[in-house]
Amino acid sequence: MGTFLVEGYLAAGTTERLLEFRNAAARASQEMAGAGVCVVYLSSVFLPDDQTCLGLFQAADRQHVSDACQRAGIPCDRITEAVLGPPPRASDAAP
Known about the structure:
Number of helices: 2
Largest sheet: 4 strands, antiparallel
CATH superfamily: ORF SCO4226, nickel-binding ferredoxin-like monomer
Helix content: 25-40%
Number of domains: 1
Strand order of the largest sheet: 2-3-1-4
CATH class: Alpha Beta
Oligomer: single chain
Radius of gyration: 15 Å
CATH topology: Alpha-Beta Plaits
Distance between the termini: 37 Å
Number of strands: 4
CATH architecture: 2-Layer Sandwich
Structural class: alpha+beta
């Protein structure tokens, strides 16, 4: 499975819209999983200054993420593969 970042424009975006995005993405992912297509919604971030919402998904391919976004009715202007870095270890912190 790969990790994918969805970028969508949210005109007049608010924190409430971010919650709608999250709920719709999670619901669509669950519905698709019920149909045998593995798409996992991970999280989202809203950038108010840019009126942009970024959603993070895991799936076998980009098309599954696109299908989940379409099913959810959420904006999907771009989908790109993402690479997540590991969390910092305690030993990485400066003394």
